[in-house]
Design goal:
The protein is an alpha/beta fold. The chain folds into two domains: 143 residues, NAD(P)-binding Rossmann-like Domain (Rossmann fold, 3-Layer(aba) Sandwich); 80 residues, no CATH class. The protein contains nine helices and seven strands. A seven-stranded mixed β-sheet has the order 2-1-3-4-5-6-7, with helices on both faces. Helix 2 packs parallel to helix 3.
Amino acid sequence: MNIGIIGHGRFGRLWAKSLKGKGYVVKMYDPRIRKERIDTDLLFLLVPISSFEQCCKKVAPLLSLSTIVVDACSVKMYPARVMRTVFHRTQPLIATHPLFGPDSVRQSGIKGKKIVVSYLRASSAQQKRFEQILQTLQLTSILSTAQRHDQQMARSQALVHFIGRGLEPLRLRPQLVATPDYETLLRMTDLVHHDTQQLFRDLQNYNPYSKRMRQTFVQNLQRIERTL
């Protein structure tokens, strides 16, 4: 299977290296400067969430209708809606969210890492082809709807990043006198050093459940502060 990738950021480079390491033919594309048709069996769109719709609009006319289009955004309802709207009604579409990044793969490898998968528009054969890729990479797939994904990620990702950004001005550092709970805070603070401000804002603005989660958290902090 020939695999194309659009997006040469940290994750794009990781994904290309991982696939090549398993024997796949991988080609990088840049629709900003290339206007010829994109000839590939499967195309990963690994661009920032805020650039996703523009990317889809540029790519759609360049694809064969047999090419399987796969996103890897950290939110799912928004890119799913964009892909269904922009691409031809027969274009195979798969929404994914790899629950890992370059740092975790560098530390412990890609084997066993989790990836959320939502088959938006794909035949049984197309789903099987994609699952074979995940199995070859030794990833653990989690089937989910886009809505259920965003509801859960508002807690497990958007809220965690929000707290991490809030802790950043405190300049917390490792210290001799510390509990295990403090080490947890340090890990949350460390998030802001590896992920971009753009990713943080996209997680908050493109997940419809993030705002309410933030508001509830802040209100609870204010309530606790008043009691003290």
